Amino acid sequence: ARTLTFTAGSTLRVGGTLTLNGASGQPLSLHSSATPSTWTISATGTAVLGNLLVKDSVATTALNAGAGSASEGNNTNWTFPGAGGTPCLQSGILGSRTIQPVIVGG
Question: Strands 88-89 and 18-21, how do they pair?
Answer without folding.
Answer: antiparallel
